[in-house]
Amino acid sequence: MQKIIRQIATEIRVHEHQVKTAVELLDGGATVPFIARYRKEATGGLDDIQLRELEQRLSYLRELEDRRETVLRSIDEQGKLTPELRAAIEFAATKQDLEDLYLPYKTKRRTKGQMAREAGIEPLADKLFANPSLAPADEAAAYVKAEKSESGDDFTTVQAVLDGVRDILSERWAEDAPLVQLLRQWLWSEGLLSSRLVSGKDENHPDNAKFRDYFDYDEPIGRVPSHRALAVFRGRGLEILDAK
Question: What does DSSP assign to residue 157?
């Protein structure tokens, strides 16, 4: 708890004892308006805005710490908690960062990538990734199976083997927390949200015309306000807009 108090104090630029007192009052059932009006002396003068931010961050950070303990316990029970991984998990500052680290250790259904690994295709994936100059189809020919596996997995063609390579690499990258975080940051700073009227739709139809502002729309993702994003997603859901 002291860690949370220290972090909130740093974020809202007040003393730790002020945060500690406010937390005790909130935990005791006092509301933000009550504390702001009647407990100013106790909190050292924290105002309504500071208290609301404190309350929000307190809730978030408590949930984060609870989830952190769950993640650490789960990975430890799997026997996969290395000192380096523990340090990374303990350092994770957001829920998203924590989930990125946990993703490879979550219990999950049998994936396409797992099927491909079980079929012995992973060495091919490593080989093609390490040397892009290789001819994928030629290399994949040696991994083609004569028949389907007992579980029905089908790697009896070159294309199926290459699909397996793609699945292995896709899952590997999706579970690489630093890479995922880097790509998310890049997308946020460089990505575009785009939408167009679905081909063949009548732009003057009353149902479609409601989305006229988004018939030829492009905007940097980092600057898209929530109401515009929701409008685009709604239009896509109604199959009026193509969005990407």
Answer: S
Q: State the residue for tokens 């909190």.
A: 43
C-alpha distance from residue 122 to each of 105, 118, 128, 157, 175 (Å): 19, 8, 10, 16, 16
CA distance 33 to 35: 6
CA 180, 74, 87, 20 torsion-angle sign: positive
The CATH number of 2-105 is which of 3.50.50.60, 3.40.50.1010, 6.10.140.1670, 1.10.10.650? 1.10.10.650
Residue 10's H or E segment, with its range, is: helix 2-12
Contact 26, 35 (CB under 8 A): yes
* Interval 170-228: pLDDT, tens: 999 988 888 988 998 899 899 999 999 999 989 899 889 999 999 999 999 989 998 99
Do residues 12 and 27 lie in contact, with contact meaning Cβ atoms separated by under 8 Å? no
The angle that helices 95-102 and 83-91 make with each other, rounded to 10 degrees, is 160
pTM for the full model?
A: 0.63
Which 3 state secondary structure label does DSSP give 148?
A: coil
CA 99/CA 92 separation, integer angstroms: 9
The single residue listed with the structure tokens 């998310």 is: 184
